[in-house]
């Protein structure tokens, strides 16, 4: 008899533990790894301020888009804007539109693990495409040497690292390659998932950064924050204006400057290969994918309040985490979008 | 328990104290003469839960079949023979993953089978009793290490070792073989095969050991009496235990085929078919783990569910075959 | 002078010795990775283990420190849920197989229970996604619990059956002789006797569930915050290790090793308990 009482008591106690915790409001989101560094900072700070939990899982832009279509999360995040087909799917399945709210600007850098190259490797669009197409396979290839006179590069195999998951970072990177290399455009194309001609696949920005860090001779593309936080060098790229530019807050802002004037109404735009002498060629917006009409009044209010904070105080965190804040014109357009968010 | 009449008739006992109850005792009638509602309910309650278990397996198969309807219809059997995996164009062919799974499992078995057999022989035939217990425990402990920890070790220890020591060595001496061509990534088919070998070894070793132990001693005694050496005796025992060892191998293969985390972390995640073990590859379990959460189109999800279905069917067949064989073997020995 | 027979004998003897050596070599090669993995994990992980690690929450990306308190709780809740769903089914099915199962249906159930134990955990995760995540429309600890329950079922069922079969028939006959209905005999006499053995089966199943990662990836997903709600995504020790191992941040890598130490410690503890309890049981009988 006593044993049964004990078991019953244990079950009761454990039942208490698993009751849905009623204290704080929680929102679940999933998506891009590109902005994860700043989003995790934002959600942590915001939680400290308001007690509201934004639980963000960085599973890749592809994952964010899918979960938003399925409605298994309250919001998504992606550095690749959703396609018309995907937007239609959301409208059908969830009965509401998706708003693309840009949050920050970031740079996709080409990072490498080659001590002989130092920290200022220079790459042109042709060489970059050649490496990722598998045409250039050794570090001492003439094409690389031509743009890097004075460097003594060894005859080591180039280990290419790319994303294995559906990635907005890949979308930005391949979008750039598509624009600058006709061979890439026909052979591979652009998108969150492409048929990479060569290389190892890593999961998430962290996965690629990890691969590059651990493999000598490796080269890969990651968001700037990941390269910096891991003391990985990144290359200077030749932009449209012919200048070699390294990724920085100024260079990314320069790339965005031109685009702010002709932003489409739904705020989906690519700013790769931007004109301008100071522009970094592989820059991109990253978006939060928010339902126009959200389930639950409390959640909708929380979302709106958070977005306003992100557009205001949140932007001040961008620079120290190696992202660039949004241009003022973009913020104004965002405010209009945020006002449209309703509850149902 | 109250109010029931207690039988106080004298009861005979066997030599070791077990009661031989008189046949006339009224409560002994299990065939149902003393029908009890409690018995009926209880029996059918337990039957119900057994059926739950049984139907679960069929439910799993059915749900996966339903979930992969789109690609089953669109591609049919070609799904298993085409190599294009293009989520952007919604074209799916699972061949690279099947190849990756098959080759990594084969590499694993090639290493784990001889090693595992050696361990089994040692434990069953050669080891002194005081050593056997702790050694068996250690080998079984290998099986208890979670896959994720293997993967962790794989990334930080195995892969660098392969990239910096093993692969360059293999390249220099055996690089003319298509098996060892290509740059030394570290990650790749070889890493996956090696880690699977370590994970499959304990299964083959412990089951083979049990099978060897089940072989009646008369066989060994006969061989020794005829003047055979230890090794020759073992050879004969092995011959008898052949099918049991086959069963153990099939079970090990089943584990290798379904292993996810450790493989995902070291295989390189590249949907490519290549003869070289140095090349990165992709296994069926890995592609599901990596891409399921982000399959954006219904066809994409369906393709991944179909791969899960293939894995399901393959492991069921392997396990069923193994169980039937091992069952058969140990039953044969029990009646011998 | 060496006769042909003597030569032959010496050669066979040498071969036998050689094979013994080979077998010993195999054992060494088999045990070596175990020792390597254990020692490497301990070495790497122990340095990052401190009180903070156990009670703190994860810190934002790139910031050093933080802990895995939510992951520990999450794993506890997940295996608790798994036990909640899996144990009743497993134990009852095991009782059926032991008491009433010597017939074709019982043989089929037994067969499929064994077959189920070989299904890869990733496949179970896919099924749990289809069965729980999709209808609920979001990831949840519940879905993870269901996946773990399915994984625990075969072990619990077969162990329960084996342990009940091991109870001597005299117990059963004594109960029946005293007029106790059959079902009561099973529940009040047989089960308590087999309880120790069944508990070890449960411990084994829990240990396996605690070490699972793949099925949790798209059922329970993960959570950076403290969460014990079953209808929300939840963190877990194994997914924590996965995320932190892939990351390029060295601090995170070290935390992954520390979490691995905790996980192995947990499983080792459960396995040791299992060994101790079974040894005790055998000693008693």
Helix and strand succession of chain A? HEHEHEHEEHHEHHEHEHEEHEEHHE
List the total number of helices of chain C.
10
Query: Which structural class do you get from the secondary structure elements of chain C?
Result: mainly alpha
- Largest sheet: spatial strand order of chain A: 2-1-3-11-4-8-6-7
Count every helix of chain A, treating DSSP H or I runs of 4 or more residues as helices. Answer: 13
Helix amount of chain C: over 70%
Describe the overall structure:
The complex is a heterotrimer of chains A (344), B (336) and C (285). With 344 residues, chain A is of the alpha/beta class. Chain A is built from 13 helices and 13 strands. Chain B has 336 residues and is mainly α. Chain B has 12 helices and 4 strands; from the N terminus they run ββααββαααααααααα. In chain B, α3 (95-126) crosses α9 and α6 (189-214) runs antiparallel to α9. Chain C has 10 helices and no strands. In chain C, α3 (69-99) crosses α9 (237-246) and α7 (169-177) packs antiparallel against α8 (182-210). Chain C starts with a helix and ends with a helix. The model of chain C has no long low-confidence stretch (mean pLDDT 86). The interface between B and C is large, with 102 and 100 residues.
At a glance:
Chain B contains twelve helices and four strands; from the N terminus they run ββααββαααααααααα.
Summary keywords:
heterotrimer, A: alpha/beta, 42% helix, globular, B: 336 residues, two-stranded antiparallel sheet, 2% strand, flat, disordered N terminus
Task: List the SSEs and their pairings.
The complex is a heterotrimer of chains A (344), B (336) and C (285).
Chain A: H1 2-18, E1 26-31, H2 36-50, E2 53-58, H3 61-70, E3 75-78, H4 84-94, E4 98-112, E5 122-123, H5 125-133, H6 142-147, E6 159-163, H7 168-180, H8 182-187, E7 200-202, H9 204-214, E8 218-223, H10 224-229, E9 236-238, E10 244-245, H11 249-261, E11 283-291, E12 293-294, H12 297-311, H13 328-339, E13 342-343
Helix pairs in contact in A: 3-4, 12-13
Chain B: E1 12-13, E2 19-20, H1 37-67, H2 69-75, E3 85-86, E4 91-92, H3 95-126, H4 129-144, H5 147-174, H6 189-214, H7 217-225, H8 230-240, H9 242-258, H10 261-266, H11 284-291, H12 298-335
Antiparallel strand pairs in B: 1-2, 3-4
Helix pairs in contact in B: 1-12, 2-12, 3-6, 3-9, 3-11, 4-6, 6-9, 7-8, 9-12, 11-12
Chain C: H1 4-46, H2 51-55, H3 69-99, H4 104-117, H5 121-136, H6 141-166, H7 169-177, H8 182-210, H9 237-246, H10 250-284
């Amino acid at each position: 008899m006593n044993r049964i009482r004990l078991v019953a008591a244990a079950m009761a106690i454990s039942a208490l533990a698993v009751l849905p915790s009623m204290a704080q409001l929680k929102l679940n989101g999933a998506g891009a790894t590109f902005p994860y560094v700043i989003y995790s900072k934002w959600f942590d700070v915001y939680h400290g301020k308001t007690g509201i939990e934004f639980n963000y899982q960085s599973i890749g832009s592809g994952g964010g888009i899918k979960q938003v279509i399925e409605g298994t999360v309250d919001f998504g995040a992606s550095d690749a804007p959703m396609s018309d087909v995907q937007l239609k799917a959301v409208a059908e399945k969830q009965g509401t539109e998706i708003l693309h709210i840009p949050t920050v600007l970031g740079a996709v850098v080409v990072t490498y693990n080659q001590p002989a190259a130092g920290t200022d490797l220079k790459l042109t669009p042709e060489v970059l495409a050649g490496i990722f197409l598998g045409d250039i396979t050794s570090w001492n290839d003439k094409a690389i040497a031509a743009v890097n006179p004075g460097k003594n590069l060894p005859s080591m195999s180039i280990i290419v690292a790319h994303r294995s998951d559906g990635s907005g970072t890949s979308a930005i990177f391949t979008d750039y390659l598509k624009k600058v290399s006709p061979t890439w455009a026909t052979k591979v194309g652009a998108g969150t998932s492409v048929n990479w001609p060569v290389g190892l696949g890593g999961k998430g920005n962290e996965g690629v950064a990890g691969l590059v860090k651990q493999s000598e001779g490796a080269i890969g593309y990651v968001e700037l924050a990941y390269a910096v936080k891991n003391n990985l060098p990144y290359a200077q790229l030749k932009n449209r204006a012919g200048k070699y530019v390294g990724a920085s807050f100024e260079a990314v802002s320069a790339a965005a400057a031109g685009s702010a004037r002709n932003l489409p109404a739904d705020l989906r735009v690519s700013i790769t290969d931007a004109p301008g002498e100071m522009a970094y060629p592989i820059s991109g917006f990253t978006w939060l994918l928010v339902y126009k009409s959200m389930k639950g009044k409390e959640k909708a209010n929380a979302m709106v309040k958070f977005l306003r904070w992100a557009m205001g105080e949140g932007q001040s965190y961008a620079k120290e985490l190696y992202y660039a804040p949004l241009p003022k014109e973009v913020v104004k357009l965002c405010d209009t979008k945020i006002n449209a968010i309703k509850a149902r | 328990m109250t109010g029931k009449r207690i039988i106080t008739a004298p009861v005979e006992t066997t030599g070791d104290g077990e009661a031989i109850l008189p046949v006339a005792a009224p409560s002994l009638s299990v065939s149902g003469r003393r029908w009890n509602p409690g018995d009926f309910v209880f029996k059918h309650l337990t039957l119900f839960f057994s059926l739950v278990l049984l139907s679960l397996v069929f439910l799993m198969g059915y749900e996966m079949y339903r979930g992969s309807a789109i690609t089953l219809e669109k591609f049919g059997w070609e799904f298993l023979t085409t190599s294009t995996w293009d989520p952007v164009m919604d074209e799916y062919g699972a061949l690279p993953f099947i190849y990756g799974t098959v080759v990594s499992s084969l590499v694993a078995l090639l290493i784990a089978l001889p090693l595992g057999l050696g361990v089994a022989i040692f434990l069953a035939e050669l080891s002194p009793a005081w050593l056997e217990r702790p050694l068996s425990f250690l080998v079984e402990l290998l099986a208890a290490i979670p896959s994720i920890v293997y993967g962790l070790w794989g990334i930080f220890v195995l892969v660098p070792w392969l990239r910096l020591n093993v692969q360059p060595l293999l390249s220099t001496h055996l690089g003319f073989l298509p098996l060892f061509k290509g740059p030394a990534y570290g990650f790749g088919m070889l890493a996956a095969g090696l880690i699977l070998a370590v994970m499959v070894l304990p299964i083959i070793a412990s089951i083979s050991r049990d099978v060897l132990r089940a072989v009646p001693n008369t066989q060994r005694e006969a061989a020794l009496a005829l003047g055979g050496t230890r090794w020759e005796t073992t050879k004969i025992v092995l011959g008898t235990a052949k099918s049991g060892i086959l069963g153990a191998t099939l079970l090990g293969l089943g584990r290798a085929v379904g292993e996810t985390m450790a493989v995902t972390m070291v295989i390189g995640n590249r949907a490519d078919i290549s003869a070289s073990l140095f090349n990165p590859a992709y296994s069926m379990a890995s592609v599901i783990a990596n891409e399921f959460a982000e399959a954006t189109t219904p066809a994409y999800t369906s393709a991944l569910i179909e791969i899960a279905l293939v894995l399901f069917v393959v492991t069921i067949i392997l396990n069923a075959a193994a169980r039937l064989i091992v069952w058969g073997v140990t039953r044969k020995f029990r009646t011998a | 002078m060496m006769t042909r027979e003597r030569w032959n004998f010496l050669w066979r003897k040498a071969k036998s010795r050689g094979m013994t050596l080979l077998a010993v070599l195999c054992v060494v090669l088999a045990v070596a990775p175990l020792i390597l993995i254990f020692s490497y994990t301990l070495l790497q992980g122990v340095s990052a283990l401190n009180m903070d690690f156990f009670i703190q929450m994860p810190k934002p990306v790139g910031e050093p420190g933080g802990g895995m308190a939510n992951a520990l709780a999450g794993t506890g809740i997940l295996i608790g849920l798994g036990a909640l769903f899996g144990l009743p089914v497993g134990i009852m099915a095991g009782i059926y197989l032991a008491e009433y199962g010597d017939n074709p249906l019982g043989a089929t159930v037994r067969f499929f229970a064994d077959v189920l134990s070989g299904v890869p955990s990733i496949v179970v995760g896919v099924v749990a996604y289809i069965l729980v995540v999709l209808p609920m429309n979001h990831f949840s600890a519940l879905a993870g619990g269901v996946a773990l329950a399915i994984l625990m079922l075969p072990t619990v069922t077969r162990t329960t059956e084996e342990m009940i079969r091991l109870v001597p028939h005299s117990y059963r006959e004594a109960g029946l002789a005293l007029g106790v209905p059959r079902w009561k005999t099973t529940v009040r006499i047989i089960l308590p006797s087999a309880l120790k053995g069944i508990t070890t089966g449960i411990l084994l199943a829990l240990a396996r569930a605690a070490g699972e990662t793949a099925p949790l990836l798209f059922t329970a997903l993960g959570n950076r915050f403290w969460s014990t709600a079953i209808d929300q995504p939840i963190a877990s020790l194994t997914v924590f290790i996965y995320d932190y191992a892939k990351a390029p941040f060295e601090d995170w890598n070290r935390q992954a090793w520390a979490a691995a130490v905790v996980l192995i410690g947990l499983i080792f503890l459960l396995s040791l308990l299992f060994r101790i309890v079974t040894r005790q049981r055998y000693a008693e009988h």
